Amino acid sequence: MSSKSNKKEIYRPNVAMILVSSEYPQKKDIFIAQRNDLTDIWQFPQGGIDEGEEVKEALFREMEEEIGTDAAEIIAEYPEWVSYDFPPKIAGKMKPYKGQTQKYFLLKLEKDAKIDLQTKHPEFIDYKFVDIHDVLEHTAHFKQPVYEKVINYFKKEGLL
After folding, report:
1. What is the pLDDT along the chain (160 residues), one digit of tens a residue?
2. Cα–Cα distance between 17 and 15 in angstroms, integer?
3. Predicted structure pTM score
4. What span, in angstroms and rounded, lies between the C-alpha atoms of 154 and 43?
5. Which residues contact residue 97 at a Cβ distance below 8 angstroms, ignoring those fewer than 6 apart?
6. How many CB atoms lie within 10 A of CB 104?
7. What are the strands, taking DSSP E only, across 1-160?
8. Rounded CA gap, 134 and 31, in Å?
Protein backbone atom coordinates (compact mmCIF):
# COMPACT_ATOMS: atom_id res chain seq x y z
CA MET A 1 0.00 0.00 0.00
CA SER A 2 1.40 3.38 -0.96
CA SER A 3 1.93 5.93 1.77
CA LYS A 4 -0.43 8.26 -0.07
CA SER A 5 -3.56 6.12 0.27
CA ASN A 6 -3.24 5.65 4.03
CA LYS A 7 -2.41 9.27 4.73
CA LYS A 8 -4.95 10.77 7.10
CA GLU A 9 -7.16 13.43 5.62
CA ILE A 10 -6.27 16.61 7.43
CA TYR A 11 -8.70 19.31 8.46
CA ARG A 12 -7.37 22.69 9.51
CA PRO A 13 -8.59 23.78 12.97
CA ASN A 14 -10.45 27.02 12.59
CA VAL A 15 -12.68 29.47 14.47
CA ALA A 16 -15.73 31.02 12.83
CA MET A 17 -18.04 33.74 14.01
CA ILE A 18 -21.63 34.70 13.52
CA LEU A 19 -21.65 38.38 14.44
CA VAL A 20 -24.79 40.32 15.24
CA SER A 21 -24.90 44.08 15.65
CA SER A 22 -25.10 45.93 18.94
CA GLU A 23 -28.86 46.21 18.32
CA TYR A 24 -29.25 42.50 19.11
CA PRO A 25 -31.58 40.96 20.30
CA GLN A 26 -34.11 43.49 18.93
CA LYS A 27 -32.45 43.15 15.53
CA LYS A 28 -30.98 39.82 14.47
CA ASP A 29 -29.14 40.87 11.32
CA ILE A 30 -25.93 38.94 10.68
CA PHE A 31 -22.57 40.31 9.54
CA ILE A 32 -21.17 38.94 6.28
CA ALA A 33 -18.11 40.14 4.40
CA GLN A 34 -17.10 39.94 0.75
CA ARG A 35 -13.78 38.22 0.10
CA ASN A 36 -11.16 40.10 -1.87
CA ASP A 37 -9.84 37.00 -3.67
CA LEU A 38 -13.05 35.30 -4.86
CA THR A 39 -15.55 37.21 -6.93
CA ASP A 40 -18.76 37.97 -5.08
CA ILE A 41 -18.22 35.40 -2.34
CA TRP A 42 -19.57 36.49 1.03
CA GLN A 43 -18.87 34.69 4.28
CA PHE A 44 -18.62 34.89 8.05
CA PRO A 45 -15.23 35.94 9.42
CA GLN A 46 -13.12 32.91 10.27
CA GLY A 47 -9.51 31.89 10.62
CA GLY A 48 -7.00 29.28 11.62
CA ILE A 49 -6.11 28.43 15.17
CA ASP A 50 -2.35 28.68 15.72
CA GLU A 51 -0.37 25.89 17.35
CA GLY A 52 -0.86 26.07 21.13
CA GLU A 53 -3.44 28.85 20.88
CA GLU A 54 -6.67 28.71 22.89
CA VAL A 55 -9.84 28.65 20.78
CA LYS A 56 -11.22 31.89 22.24
CA GLU A 57 -7.84 33.61 21.89
CA ALA A 58 -7.88 32.68 18.20
CA LEU A 59 -11.45 33.91 17.88
CA PHE A 60 -10.68 37.44 19.07
CA ARG A 61 -7.31 37.57 17.26
CA GLU A 62 -8.94 36.56 13.97
CA MET A 63 -11.76 39.05 14.48
CA GLU A 64 -9.23 41.85 14.98
CA GLU A 65 -7.13 40.69 11.98
CA GLU A 66 -10.10 40.36 9.63
CA ILE A 67 -12.53 43.14 10.56
CA GLY A 68 -10.33 45.51 12.54
CA THR A 69 -12.05 45.12 15.91
CA ASP A 70 -12.41 42.62 18.71
CA ALA A 71 -15.02 44.70 20.56
CA ALA A 72 -17.60 41.95 20.89
CA GLU A 73 -19.01 39.64 23.51
CA ILE A 74 -19.65 35.93 23.13
CA ILE A 75 -23.36 35.10 23.37
CA ALA A 76 -23.05 31.37 22.71
CA GLU A 77 -20.83 28.63 21.35
CA TYR A 78 -21.86 25.85 18.98
CA PRO A 79 -21.38 22.67 21.04
CA GLU A 80 -19.31 20.69 18.55
CA TRP A 81 -16.71 21.08 15.82
CA VAL A 82 -18.14 21.21 12.28
CA SER A 83 -16.11 20.25 9.21
CA TYR A 84 -16.34 20.97 5.52
CA ASP A 85 -14.22 20.09 2.51
CA PHE A 86 -12.63 22.70 0.28
CA PRO A 87 -13.92 22.77 -3.30
CA PRO A 88 -11.25 21.52 -5.78
CA LYS A 89 -10.32 25.06 -6.92
CA ILE A 90 -9.45 26.08 -3.35
CA ALA A 91 -8.10 22.69 -2.15
CA GLY A 92 -4.95 23.00 -4.29
CA LYS A 93 -3.94 26.23 -2.53
CA MET A 94 -4.66 24.83 0.93
CA LYS A 95 -2.53 21.66 0.86
CA PRO A 96 -2.01 19.56 2.98
CA TYR A 97 -5.49 20.42 4.27
CA LYS A 98 -8.55 18.77 2.75
CA GLY A 99 -10.93 21.14 4.52
CA GLN A 100 -11.53 22.88 7.80
CA THR A 101 -12.92 21.81 11.12
CA GLN A 102 -14.50 24.79 12.81
CA LYS A 103 -15.65 25.95 16.21
CA TYR A 104 -18.51 28.43 15.82
CA PHE A 105 -19.41 31.29 18.12
CA LEU A 106 -22.32 33.70 18.16
CA LEU A 107 -21.07 37.17 19.12
CA LYS A 108 -22.61 40.57 19.62
CA LEU A 109 -20.63 43.61 18.53
CA GLU A 110 -20.29 46.28 21.18
CA LYS A 111 -21.86 49.70 20.55
CA ASP A 112 -18.48 51.36 20.01
CA ALA A 113 -17.05 48.60 17.78
CA LYS A 114 -15.47 50.15 14.68
CA ILE A 115 -15.34 47.76 11.75
CA ASP A 116 -12.32 48.46 9.54
CA LEU A 117 -11.54 46.10 6.67
CA GLN A 118 -8.27 47.92 5.87
CA THR A 119 -6.30 45.62 8.14
CA LYS A 120 -2.64 44.62 7.83
CA HIS A 121 -3.53 41.75 5.49
CA PRO A 122 -6.99 42.62 4.16
CA GLU A 123 -9.20 39.65 3.38
CA PHE A 124 -12.45 41.47 2.71
CA ILE A 125 -13.44 44.37 0.47
CA ASP A 126 -16.95 44.98 1.74
CA TYR A 127 -19.37 44.00 4.49
CA LYS A 128 -23.04 44.24 5.33
CA PHE A 129 -25.56 43.09 7.90
CA VAL A 130 -28.24 40.87 6.36
CA ASP A 131 -31.48 39.51 7.71
CA ILE A 132 -31.11 36.06 9.25
CA HIS A 133 -33.49 34.65 6.60
CA ASP A 134 -31.36 35.95 3.70
CA VAL A 135 -27.90 34.92 4.87
CA LEU A 136 -27.67 31.71 2.85
CA GLU A 137 -28.60 33.46 -0.40
CA HIS A 138 -25.44 35.55 -0.12
CA THR A 139 -22.84 33.06 1.06
CA ALA A 140 -20.44 30.60 -0.59
CA HIS A 141 -22.24 27.44 -1.72
CA PHE A 142 -19.71 25.02 -0.19
CA LYS A 143 -20.14 26.62 3.24
CA GLN A 144 -23.94 26.72 3.20
CA PRO A 145 -24.60 23.31 4.79
CA VAL A 146 -22.39 24.25 7.76
CA TYR A 147 -23.87 27.76 8.00
CA GLU A 148 -27.38 26.34 7.90
CA LYS A 149 -26.64 23.76 10.60
CA VAL A 150 -25.10 26.33 12.96
CA ILE A 151 -27.75 29.01 12.35
CA ASN A 152 -30.54 26.46 12.88
CA TYR A 153 -28.96 25.41 16.17
CA PHE A 154 -28.81 29.02 17.43
CA LYS A 155 -32.43 29.55 16.24
CA LYS A 156 -33.56 26.43 18.10
CA GLU A 157 -31.85 27.78 21.22
CA GLY A 158 -33.87 30.97 20.82
CA LEU A 159 -30.79 33.07 20.12
CA LEU A 160 -31.41 33.93 16.46
Report:
1. 434 443 567 999 999 999 999 999 999 999 999 999 877 889 999 999 999 999 999 999 999 999 999 999 999 999 999 999 999 888 888 889 999 999 999 999 999 999 999 999 999 999 999 999 999 999 988 899 999 999 999 999 999 9
2. 7
3. 0.91
4. 17
5. 10, 11, 12, 86, 91
6. 26
7. 10-20, 30-35, 42-43, 46-48, 72-77, 82-85, 97-109, 124-130
8. 11
